[in-house]
Amino acid sequence: MKQLKLAALLVTVTLLAISTGATESPGISPRELKEAKKLYLGKCAKCHELHSPAAYTPMQWNDWLVKMSRTSRLNPEQEKMLKRYTELLREMAARNSGQTNSIPK
After folding, report:
1. At what angle do helices 76-97 and 58-71 cross, to 10 degrees?
2. Residue 81: which residues within 8 A CB-CB, separation 6 or more?
3. Which phi and psi angles does 50 have, rounded to 5°?
4. What backbone torsions phi and psi does residue 82 show, to the nearest 5 degrees?
5. Is the CB of residue 72 less than 8 Å from the CB of residue 44?
6. CA dist., res. 68 & res. 72, Å (int)
7. What pTM, to 2 d.p., does this model score?
8. Helix or strand or coil: residue 89?
9. Measuring CA to CA, how many Å separate 41 from each of 21, 32, 79, 86?
């Protein structure tokens, strides 16, 4: 169920950001948004279930992103793009839930 909600959030974020131009706040263009989503699904979901960035503090998420970027052999540009994309996911999740950084129990 959690996986389904995250997948729905990914689709919603992508469509909403492209249609409203909301991608400017984290510094990601519509083209990069599509590439980042593909990267997120292709690299991250290849090895483990997708985790919501909003379920971690920004510091925790960044630590994991750096570690996983090395593990999945992302180049520096891919890592930056994925970071901007997940910042957008965090922002959209916070708007949808009315919460900011909740740590999973």
Report:
1. 140
2. 28, 32, 35, 36, 39
3. -75, 140
4. -65, -35
5. yes
6. 6
7. 0.67
8. helix
9. 22, 14, 14, 12
As a whole number, the mean pLDDT across the chain is 76
Most confident of 3-12, 26-35, 65-74: 65-74
Per-residue pLDDT reduced to its tens digit, 37-53:
999 888 888 888 888 88
Let me know: does 65 contact 82? Beta carbons within 8 Å.
yes
**pLDDT-based confidence at residue 78 (cuts at 50, 70, 90):** very high
Q: What angle do CA 98, 104, 105 make, to 5 degrees?
A: 120
pLDDT value, residue 80: 92
Q: CA-CA distances (angstroms) from residue 69 to 2, 7, 15, 44, 101?
A: 23, 21, 25, 9, 22
Residues 6+ apart with CB under 8 A from 25: 88, 91
